[in-house]
Amino acid sequence: MAGVAEYIKESYIELTEKVTWPTWRELQSSAVLVLVAAIIIAMVVLGMDQIIAYLLKAFYNSLT
């Protein structure tokens, strides 16, 4: 049980003294970057989906 307590103590020390946490400004800019990248990727996937749907619809209509 002493090993678990030592692990928790060392983890707390590492999180409070050794980890470099981002500033609020850095956190905001990273969040905006992730949001913009997610929107761009979603638009690309939507475009691909629309193109494939159009091609499949045209293909199936040509069979009948």
From TrEMBL:
<dbReference type="InterPro" id="IPR005807">
    <property type="entry name" value="SecE_bac"/>
</dbReference>
<dbReference type="InterPro" id="IPR038379">
    <property type="entry name" value="SecE_sf"/>
</dbReference>
<keyword id="KW-1003">Cell membrane</keyword>
<keyword id="KW-1133">Transmembrane helix</keyword>
<comment type="similarity">
    <text>Belongs to the SecE/SEC61-gamma family.</text>
</comment>
<keyword id="KW-0813">Transport</keyword>
<keyword id="KW-0653">Protein transport</keyword>
<keyword id="KW-0811">Translocation</keyword>
<dbReference type="Pfam" id="PF00584">
    <property type="entry name" value="SecE"/>
</dbReference>
<feature type="transmembrane region" description="Helical">
    <location>
        <begin position="31"/>
        <end position="56"/>
    </location>
</feature>
<protein>
    <recommendedName>
        <fullName>Protein translocase subunit SecE</fullName>
    </recommendedName>
</protein>
<keyword id="KW-0812">Transmembrane</keyword>
<comment type="subunit">
    <text>Component of the Sec protein translocase complex. Heterotrimer consisting of SecY, SecE and SecG subunits. The heterotrimers can form oligomers, although 1 heterotrimer is thought to be able to translocate proteins. Interacts with the ribosome. Interacts with SecDF, and other proteins may be involved. Interacts with SecA.</text>
</comment>
<dbReference type="InterPro" id="IPR001901">
    <property type="entry name" value="Translocase_SecE/Sec61-g"/>
</dbReference>
<keyword id="KW-0472">Membrane</keyword>
<comment type="function">
    <text>Essential subunit of the Sec protein translocation channel SecYEG. Clamps together the 2 halves of SecY. May contact the channel plug during translocation.</text>
</comment>
